[in-house]
Structure formats: C-alpha cells, structure tokens
Design goal:
Blueprint lengths: L7 H8 L7 E2 L29 H9 L4 E4 L1 H8 L8 E5 L4 H9 L3 E5 L4 H4 L5 E5 L11 H12 L4 E5 L20 E6 L12 E4 L2 H11 L6 H12 L1 H24 L6 E3 L2 E5 L3 H9 L3 E2 L1 E3 L4 E5 L4 H20 L1
Parallel strand pairs: 1-11, 3-4, 3-5, 5-6, 6-7
Antiparallel strand pairs: 2-8, 7-8, 9-10, 10-13, 12-13
Helix pairs in contact: 2-8, 3-4
C-alpha cells in the first residue's frame, strides 16, 4: 500500500497525542466541507438505483452528458488500466502515486515525464495521464494544449486521462464539458472541494462505450445509497458552491503568507494546498507532528504539502509552531 495523507490515527498512536487534539493539514481536503444533513431512514434500506437523480445532478454540475458514478477516483484509477492491452503510458512526476502503480500492476509500460517535455514524447505514448492541477506541485495545464494532446492521441486510438480532483475551485479550467470527445477521460471527485472524502463518490466522464466497459468491470451498486443521496444534494447546492469558491482562495492566501513569513515560500500551489520544497522537510514534518500538526511529507523530492486550515485558530496554531521551529533552528 502506498503512503497517503490523512493517516491521523497512525500519527496519534506514533506521537502519543489524542486524536481530537490534532490539526490535520495533510490531505488537501476542504476543512469546511459541505454540511451533510440527516439522511432519510429509507435511504439506508434500499439498494442503489440509477434513477435516484444522482446522474442528473452530476450532468448539470459538470456540464457533461456522459458520465458514470464510481466509488471515488480510486475505483477508476485501479480499473481503467484493465480496459487496454499492454501499452505505453506517460505521466508527470511527482504526482499522485496511485496512477503509476495501477498501470504498472496491469502490465503497462510507464514513462515519467515533466510538464516541459510532454510534446517531445507525445508520439511515443498510447496514454497520457495528467493531474490538473497536479498534486502535489500545483502545476496547471491550458485547455487548448490538453485538447491538442487529446487529438494527437485519439488519432492512434490513444487516451488522454485527466484527473481533476482539485479543479472544482477553478471550474473554468476543466475539460468536463468536452468529455464526449474520442479518447478523452476525465476523473472527478467529491472528496476535495466538497470535503466529502468519506462518502467515496467520484465520476468518470468519457464516451458512452468506454463507460459501459468500465461499468461492466465495476459491477452493480458501485456507490452506496447514502453516498449517492449525499452527493446529489451537494452537487445541487449552488449557493454553497459559490460561497466556497470565494472563501477558499482567501484561506489559501493567508496560508501562503504565513509560510512565506517563516521562510517556507511555496514552490507550487493549488487552492486547497501549498507545496514546499526544502532539504529540511523531514525534520519540519517531525517537529510539527510532535506538536499535533500533521502535514504530508514527500521524500522525492524532499517536500511538504500543507492543506488549508479550518479557521483562524488553526492558522495561529500553525504560525506559533513554525515560528518556534524557526527560532530553535536559528539558535542551534
């Protein structure tokens, strides 16, 4: 199993700090997620039904006509490689490591790329897989460039897969509305912007024929009835979505200013996280954890990802901890 953020219980056990005393900045999940109301009792008693309104709500939200609900992005990430014979796959590093692992596990050849050399290698690939914005670097790709790559790949029966898990804050950059084009597959997820990681709901947007193949692989009832109900309500709550798109950039700016003030200027950013590269990240990660603050640590390259704080109390707590680490480093 690969390492991921959000392993709060493991951190609590390791550092001997009760779970409720932690400030978790490790996940890149909106800490003030969509407020889930009481789920009607009848929802718990019925198997999932395709006609429950979830697909309609998702089509409206994503402005896409062809999509399939799945159990979070992970279900699609693990299954899509099974729909192609062994082929050549290109992806960006550093990036969400589950993508490369899934394609390698299915017997494909994986080539690591940078955002600068994709054009140089595009004709060598059958599948180009990009995270937009990238996790953890925050790198973003222009729509026109993505569509050009999609066209080049589609001419040879190839795929462009775009993981848009972090794009809800800036939907104008999404290719969701183009997902009916041949060879284009878009992955969306309610865990980040909506803060609903626990319901495990995502969507694959693609051509109907490909979605049918994916559906057959996943089988019936891929998403539970309570999860479908919650997702439907959240996708329809346009006032909350608009307010959240206004608030999150403000929180991101506050966090960026704090990191800059202690000499940890972000190397890359998306609205829901900042990425900091420095040789001291292992020590900073450990010393923050000793104070009950969890960040996401990466070894290659040596870096930390800071997710957003829920409130000013959390931001102030992080500021005090970082300033203490800075002072101790200066006096050492």
């Amino acid at each position: 199993m690969l390492e991921h953020g959000g392993k709060l219980r493991a951190a609590a056990n390791r550092y001997g700090i009760p779970l409720e005393q932690w400030l978790d900045l490790s996940t890149g999940i909106n800490p003030n997620g969509w407020p889930v109301p009481t789920i009607p009792a009848a929802i718990w008693q019925r198997l999932p039904e395709d006609e429950d309104g979830l697909v309609t709500a998702a089509r409206d939200y994503y402005q896409a006509t062809s999509l399939l609900p799945v159990a979070g992005s992970q279900a699609a990430i693990q299954t899509l490689p099974k729909l192609r014979p062994a082929c050549r796959v290109g992806l960006i590093t550093p990036g969400y490591t589950e993508h490369a692992a899934a394609w390698l596990r299915a017997g494909h050849s994986v080539q690591t790329l940078t955002s600068c050399n994709i054009d140089q290698h595009i004709n060598e690939l059958d599948v180009l897989l990009l995270i937009n914005p990238n996790n953890p670097t925050g790198c973003c790709f222009e729509r026109e460039q993505l569509l050009t790559w999609r066209q080049q790949l589609a001419r040879r029966g190839g795929w462009l897969i775009i993981d848009e898990a972090f794009i809800d804050c800036t939907p104008q950059h999404s290719l969701a509305s183009e997902a009916g084009l041949p060879g284009l597959i878009v992955l969306r997820y309610l865990g980040k912007f909506f803060g609903l990681a626990g319901i495990r709901v995502g969507f694959v947007l693609a051509e109907p024929a490909l979605l049918q193949q994916l559906h057959e692989q996943l089988g019936p009832w891929a998403v539970s009835s309570p999860s479908r109900w919650v997702a439907s309500q959240a996708l329809r709550d346009h006032p909350w979505q608009q307010q959240t798109r206004q608030k999150l950039p403000q929180q991101a700016q506050q966090l960026a200013q704090l990191l800059q003030s202690v000499g940890l200027s972000p190397t890359g950013s998306a609205t829901l996280f900042h990425w900091v590269t420095t040789p001291e990240t292992t020590e900073i990660h450990h010393r923050l954890a000793k104070q009950g603050i969890l960040t996401r640590h990466f070894c290659d390259p040596s870096s930390l990802r800071f997710g957003l704080h829920a409130d000013q109390t959390g931001l102030q707590r992080l500021e005090v901890a970082l300033q203490q680490i800075l002072q101790e480093s200066c006096s050492a």
